[in-house]
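Researcher: Re-running this chain for the archive, since the previous output was lost when a drive failed. Same request as before.
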Amino acid sequence: MSLQGSLFGQDNNHKQEINLENGLLEYYPHFFTPTDSDRIFQQLIATITWKQESMRMYGREVLFPRLMAWYGDANSSYSFSGNTFKPLPWTAELTMIRDRVAMAAGTTFNSVLLNYYRSGNDSMGWHADDEPELGKNPVIGSVNMGATRRFLLRHRYHQDLKYEIALEHGSLLLMKGELQHFWEHQVPKTAKPVGPRINLTFRYIYP
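Model: Regenerated structure tokens:
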């Protein structure tokens, strides 16, 4: 199964529901207009406090292959890959994006993880957003700005179940239902020439 390219016009109320076994995706190819997307992308590059974090692997520190930042409410610290991230306070731009995504998702978010993929060499490995502090069946709102990158999913228990989406500039992907407990996802490296991309994943952290 795969979904490639734009299926709808410039209307952020249009979405495609993708019912997977043990999970649901909702994809808005043009959640933000091209003009807004360009402006937001440049502002995030310039104003976010980007860092290249590291994790402990095989007895040594290994740098994540991308830049990262964590913003949110004061009580929304988040732990993954052996690190605990304390949030920076919301900016006006991030608050605006959060509120628009929350309205589409029908839920609230108190934090956002930003990943800055500087080129095709930057990537995200296989993982699921299933940490205990996210609660049961978390809703994850994934906003994509900049270059289009492949987003791959694979079922944890059925190796033949896979899915792929090309996440476009200004798009929103909502991950719902049991998806995080049954599916993993990744953004692979690519040898093709590709520009920079910023991904924002909004979530609710339970204290």
